Structures are given as structure tokens and as C-alpha cells.
Amino acid sequence: xxxxxxxxYVPQMILNGFTDADGWLHWCRxxxxxxxxxxxxxAEVFHxxxxxxxLSASGIKDPAMERALAALESEAVGVIQAILExxxxxxxxxxxxxxTQLWYMFFLMQWRRTPxxxxxxxxxxxxxxxxxxxxxxxxIVAPHRLDEIAAFGTPEAKARTIRNVRVQSLIGLRANVMxxxxxxxxxxxxxxxxxxxxxxxxxPVVKLTSPGQTDLNDPKVEMWLPIAADVAVGVGQGDxxxxxxxxxxDSPIRQLNLAIAKQSGMIAAxxxxxxxxxxxxx
Length: 282
Known about the structure:
Elements: E1 6-8, H1 12-15, E2 25-28, E3 38-40, E4 47-49, E5 54-55, E6 61-62, H2 64-87, H3 97-112, H4 115-121, H5 124-141, H6 146-152, H7 155-168, H8 175-184, E7 186-191, E8 200-201, E9 206-208, E10 222-228, E11 231-235, E12 242-247, H9 250-263, E13 267-269, H10 272-279
Parallel strand pairs: 7-12
Antiparallel strand pairs: 1-4, 2-3, 2-13, 5-6, 7-11, 8-13, 9-10, 10-11
């Protein structure tokens, strides 16, 4: 069986909704060179080789997590299409309980799975220091196994352990967070002005908070994931249902785009002008 190498942390089926009329994405690494906008096909961006493969001590890569994520995406694409078809007709989507649960799983996974999201929780340097502390304790409680402990303390072994822990941490979805999503329900924003668009970022799920208001249980705290250039889906107001908002105003669109860009090292859209505008925002 062929081992998948190129692992997209933003699914291609999402990226396809942001291309221009010819199927191109216009992108830039705005923290490095905000004036350099490139173009690429969705398959060529927002990926990292073997990102979700665990690595054995002998160097064998196991892409089980990548296959699991691909299976989730294959199931979720039908839900996303159902949402897009309904809202573009001006209708609130009607989703089954199974479809709703599938959306929550996809949304939560997309929030957690990107490299930038994982590093925001624990940096590689922090993880390395934590491992050093654990190894120091092991040397005290198990002095008869110093050689074995030393083998775990090499730079290569530590990097492998940190990599594997990051991958395996995606397995368990937190029941309390799923419960919050279920209580909040689903909110949807649709842009009705043809010349306005959402961007997509390398960390595409954004949480909007105010000082002292960061708990997702608070209806004032927002979370959004653009699933196409004209549609963003996030948490609802707290009734457990699905709400649809149409907007022609530039303010909420730009606010969301700027928030995504602030937390993402790479941004993309169907318009190079929009990418430059967001990348060079002051």
C-alpha cells in the first residue's frame, strides 16, 4: 500500500471553495514578505510532508492518522455541500443529527490539527524542556536504567517523541468541548456582495474574544471557519439550532479576515488584490 506523503492541514475540499474562476489560489507568507503574492493549485499549498505520520525508532512512518483524517473529510464533504447549497439559496440548512455531529467533529478537528494551532498550545522548546524534566526524574527513581533513559534523551529521540505525541493527541475529542458546540448550535455567515470574499489561512478557525470573555460557553465569544469564499460557519448563539446571517457590510468580513491573518503565517484567496490588502493591513 502506498504511504501518503503530502498531508494537507487545510483540506483541499475546503481550499477549492476559495479559488478564482480559473481554479487558482493566490497566497502569500505575509509575515515574511507581504508584497509577494504567488498563485498555486489547491493541491500545492497548506500541506506538510508526513505531518500526521508517527515515526518508529527504526524510522518507519505510520500514516494511520492521515488516513483517519482523510476518512473524516470524505464524510464531511457532503455536509459542507449541503450547507453551501442551502445558504446560497437563502435558506437555513436542514441537517440530520448525524450530519450535525459530523460537522462538530470536523470543525473541532480543523481547530486543533494545524501546526500553528498545536504550537500555540506547546512549542517544541517547551515540549523538549518537559521531556528533560521527566528524564531527570527517571534518572533519580530508576538509576539502574540510565542507558535506556539516555537513549530517550538524544535530540533525535526527543524530536520523534514530540512528533508522535502531537499526532496522537488528535485522537481524543474532548467531550466537554463537543458538549459546548452542541449547546451553542451552528451559526452561518453568507456574503451577499459579489466583490467581497473571505480569505483562508494556515490556521483557518478563528476565535473572537473580548478582554475577560474567552469561555466558549459565553455567547459573546465567537468561532468561525470559512468553508468557501462567501460562507463561514461557526458556533451559534446558544439555542442548539442553526442560524443564518446575510451580510453586505464590509466591517464583519474584514474583521474576520484580519483575525485569520493575525494567527496564520500563510493566507490565500481567489483575489490577489484581497491577499495584498489583508497582508499589508495597518
